[in-house]
């Protein structure tokens, strides 16, 4: 059944978005109330959360999710969280309804489901590490020069602050 869902999600990614969202080029740091993280695993999300609270604001609400087909963790999602025709299920609809101000995308496991979630949250400002496949989805990208995720995230936040 995964291939059927993947087929519909892949088709949705190839279609141009119906409406272009107008985003401000500048995201003002003081206006950030919620941040969504799409990462590789729970540990990475926890590390990124530490950096955000340390470098931005302790009061920012953080929602972290990662793709894992075998995990039962609440933060994990998989192809099973999409309907047979590729629409987000109840769990993902709750995530999408939160409308974060900023999305930090660090997932190295590029798959159609993760990219589709990123596309569905296109109204939010998004940033992450450079990849050709991510060009249409991210507003700010950096080369991943840092060896660990904490220093890489600190660099992302540093450059986000500089463009403000």
UniProtKB/TrEMBL annotation:
InterPro entries linked to this entry: DUF6913
User: What domain of life does the native source organism fall in?
Assistant: Bacteria
In Swiss-Prot or TrEMBL terms, this protein is called Iron complex transport system substrate-binding protein
The organism encoding this protein is: Cyclobacterium jeungdonense
């Amino acid at each position: 059944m995964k291939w059927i869902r993947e087929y519909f999600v892949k088709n949705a990614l190839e279609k141009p978005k119906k409406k272009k969202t107008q985003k401000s080029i500048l995201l003002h740091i003081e206006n950030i109330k919620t941040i969504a993280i799409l990462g590789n695993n729970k540990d990475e999300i926890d590390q990124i959360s530490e950096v955000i609270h340390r470098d931005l604001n302790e009061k920012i609400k953080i929602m972290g999710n990662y793709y894992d087909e075998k995990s039962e963790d609440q933060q994990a999602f998989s192809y099973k969280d999409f309907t047979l025709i590729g629409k987000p299920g109840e769990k993902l609809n709750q995530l999408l309804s939160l409308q974060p101000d900023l999305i930090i995308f660090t997932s190295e496991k590029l798959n159609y489901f993760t990219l589709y979630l990123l596309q569905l949250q296109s109204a939010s400002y998004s940033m992450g590490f450079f990849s050709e496949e991510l060009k249409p989805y991210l507003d700010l990208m950096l080369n991943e020069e840092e060896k660990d995720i904490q220093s890489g995230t600190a660099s992302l936040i540093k450059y986000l602050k500089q463009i403000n």
